[in-house]
């Protein structure tokens, strides 16, 4: 977890997500259509929450702008 309050970003490592959560999310036809390709992964965006699923299976979510999620993904090991 990084940030505080409304700026909090939650990161889930690929191993903690069971290794297949990201794959399952992107295999769902509706979610695949909703997920937009961005550098380093795919982004699911709503007015309340953004979720970044990285190419290596990590998941980052928060009520922040997509570039904040991408920054958190770049900074995370």
Summarize the structure.
With 77 residues, the protein is α+β, with helices and mostly antiparallel strands. The protein contains 3 helices and 5 strands, in the order βααββββα.
Would you give an account of this structure?
The chain is α+β, with helices and mostly antiparallel strands and 77 residues long. It has a single domain (8-75), classed as 2-Layer Sandwich (TATA-Binding Protein). Helix content is 30%, strand content 27%. The chain contains 3 helices and 5 strands; from the N terminus they run E-H-H-E-E-E-E-H. The protein has a 5-stranded antiparallel beta sheet with strand order 1-5-4-3-2. A hairpin with a 2-residue loop joins strand 2 and strand 3 (41-45). The longest helix is centred in the last third of the chain and has 10 residues, at 66-75.
List descriptors.
3 helices; 5 strands; globular; alpha+beta; TATA-Binding Protein; 77 residues
């Amino acid at each position: 977890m990084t940030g505080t309050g409304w700026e909090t970003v939650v990161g889930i490592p690929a191993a903690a997500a069971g290794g297949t959560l990201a794959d399952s999310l992107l295999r769902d036809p509706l979610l695949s259509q909703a997920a937009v390709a961005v550098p380093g992964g795919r982004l699911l965006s709503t007015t309340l929450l953004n979720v970044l699923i990285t190419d290596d299976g990590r998941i980052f979510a928060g009520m922040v702008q997509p570039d904040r999620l991408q920054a958190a993904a770049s900074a995370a090991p």
